[in-house]
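testing teh design pipeline on a random one, pls ignore if ur not involved
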């Protein structure tokens, strides 16, 4: 089932195309036309939408710029839709609009979902949308990473099950290795930290501070340092309120208040208001007596012992030493000591933790070694089946002597670790690097497919690969340019049949000269050229019914209205419908 579809493209002022709309089928679309009509511009247009190089020579003569717009239907949760929305794009009724403009001066601009974006974003989206196979533009399965991913999907559960286990173990190994590295590489710093904490805790323990002790001692030191002044002031205040026994004639506050109260008591019965004032004077007299008594006791209890003052100051000095180093006051010092005790416990447990992590790391390495070997074995078995299947396909595509194989070797970017006396390379997806190789004829060495075939052969090889991988590779749209180069007769029919088979699970667009290929298409587009004597223009037209028969007749016999050609074209269409 096709989940993403390139519905249409609009091309303006690009090469020989002045203004054309290319309506594509969700299945198999064939693009045909006479040589020089501009079929290649369809491929070029798609290349621009995919972030390809903007060549100002593509701009139609007399125009200021060329533009290509594409409409792609997408599921809302697809990776492309998510990435586009991250860039600020908006979907239009489930479709993503992409456009690219190229000025005659060479400036290029890209838009996705109505938002201007860097051209590089088009390339990112293209990786998930379209695989191009042509004479000069090869993408998709030519990348080793894509080849490995596709082979894993082709292998099915034989690879998927150990790969999932491997992935979980690999991620855990990275976590363990990172923690172990942090503990061992910082061992000196952590040891120094532990020593400092021990020293500080010993200082605090030796001082035995008590919460709030520094505040109490500060108050006591202040009192002892001014004992004489405090005692003198208390004596004077006491004499003012209670009188001086050595001065019988002196006047004190208590006697004055008592005299006032006696004067009021003599007449208080005549006025309740005056009686209330007399009551208040009585209360004042009692309060004065209490204060006088406390002043006498304060003076008697005041200790002006210089030895005690010295002891207090010495203790304050010890506490001040702690607060300078470990906190603003003794309460903060005690909090620091509590936290430091816990931290020291962590640091002193590092040796045990290192031993635990090292043991887990070794166990994980052994497990990964077994899982990596299981992955290699499963991939090797799938690669053998895959190579045979592609080779069989090529035999039907006029390449009877070609042989495709899959080379599986240790990945260059994997981490080599010795396990059980052998070196095992661990990468994020195992120890393997996958490479599709082609031997085009007997005796020829197998080489990477991008280097082992000509342009036309490469397109057929990629067609065979895509057919075998059908349903495994996630790219929803395939574009083949010149896939039929050097092919004719029965082989051409087989090319068309295989393109139709691929279109069962993906969208397929093919630029072709062969009627045998075009006949298998769900939709056929004609790129036709007109000339008014001074300007040459090309347009794109959807062919249906009799128009399609006429175009196939032209492709077969070079004559649109030949009765024999039309009969052959109708027969070809009927055979293609039955042969799908």
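output:
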């Amino acid at each position: 089932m096709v989940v993403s579809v390139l519905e249409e493209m609009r091309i303006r002022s690009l090469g020989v195309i002045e203004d054309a709309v290319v309506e594509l089928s969700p299945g198999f679309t064939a693009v045909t036309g006479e040589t020089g009509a501009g079929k290649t511009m369809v491929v070029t247009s798609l290349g621009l939408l995919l972030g390809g190089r903007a060549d100002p020579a593509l701009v139609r003569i007399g125009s200021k710029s060329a533009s290509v717009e594409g409409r792609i239907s997408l599921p809302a949760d697809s990776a492309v839709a998510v990435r586009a929305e991250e860039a600020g794009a908006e979907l239009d009724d489930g479709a993503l609009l992409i456009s690219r403009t190229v000025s005659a001066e060479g400036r290029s601009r890209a838009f996705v979902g109505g938002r201007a974006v860097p051209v590089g974003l088009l390339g990112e989206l293209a990786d998930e949308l379209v695989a191009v196979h042509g004479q000069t533009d090869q993408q998709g399965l030519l990348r080793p990473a894509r080849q490995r991913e596709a082979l894993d999907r082709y292998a099915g559960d034989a690879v998927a099950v150990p790969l999932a286990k491997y992935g979980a173990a690999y991620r855990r190994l990275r976590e363990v290795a990172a923690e172990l590295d942090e503990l061992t590489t910082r061992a000196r710093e952590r040891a120094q930290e532990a020593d400092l904490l021990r020293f500080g805790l010993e200082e605090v323990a030796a001082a035995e501070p008590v919460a709030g002790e520094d505040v109490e001692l500060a108050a006591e030191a202040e009192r002892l340092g001014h004992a004489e002044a405090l005692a003198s002031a208390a004596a004077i205040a006491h004499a003012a309120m209670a009188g001086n026994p050595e001065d019988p004639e002196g006047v004190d506050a208590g006697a004055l208040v008592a005299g006032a109260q006696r004067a009021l008591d003599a007449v208080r019965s005549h006025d309740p208001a005056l009686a209330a004032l007399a009551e208040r004077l009585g209360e004042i007299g009692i309060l004065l007596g209490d204060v006088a008594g406390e002043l006498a006791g304060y003076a008697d209890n005041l200790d002006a012992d210089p030895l005690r003052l010295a002891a207090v100051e010495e203790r304050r000095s010890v506490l001040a030493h702690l607060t300078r180093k470990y906190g603003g006051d003794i309460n903060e010092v005690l909090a620091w000591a509590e936290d430091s005790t816990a931290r020291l416990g962590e640091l002193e447990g590092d040796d045990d933790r290192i031993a635990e992590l090292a043991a887990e790391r070794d166990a994980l390495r052994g497990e990964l070694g077994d899982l990596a070997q299981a992955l290699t074995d499963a991939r090797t078995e799938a690669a053998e089946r895959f190579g045979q299947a592609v080779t069989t396909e090529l035999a039907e595509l006029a390449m009877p002597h070609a042989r495709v194989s899959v080379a599986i070797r240790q990945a260059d970017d994997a981490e080599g670790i010795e396990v059980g006396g052998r070196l095992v390379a661990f990468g994020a997806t195992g120890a393997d690097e996958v490479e599709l190789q082609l031997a085009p004829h007997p005796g020829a060495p197998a080489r990477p497919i991008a280097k082992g075939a000509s342009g036309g052969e490469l397109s057929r090889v990629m067609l065979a690969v895509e057919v075998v991988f059908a349903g495994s590779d996630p790219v929803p749209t395939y574009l083949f340019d010149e896939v039929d180069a050097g092919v004719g007769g029965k082989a051409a029919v087989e090319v068309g049949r295989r393109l139709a088979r691929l279109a069962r699970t993906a969208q397929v667009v093919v630029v072709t000269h062969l009627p045998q290929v075009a006949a298998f298409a769900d939709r056929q587009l004609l790129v036709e050229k007109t000339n008014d004597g001074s300007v040459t223009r090309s347009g794109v037209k959807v062919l249906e019914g009799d128009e399609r028969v006429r175009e196939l007749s032209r492709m077969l016999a070079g004559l649109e209205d030949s009765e024999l050609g039309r009969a052959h074209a109708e027969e070809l269409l009927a055979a293609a419908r039955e042969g799908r």
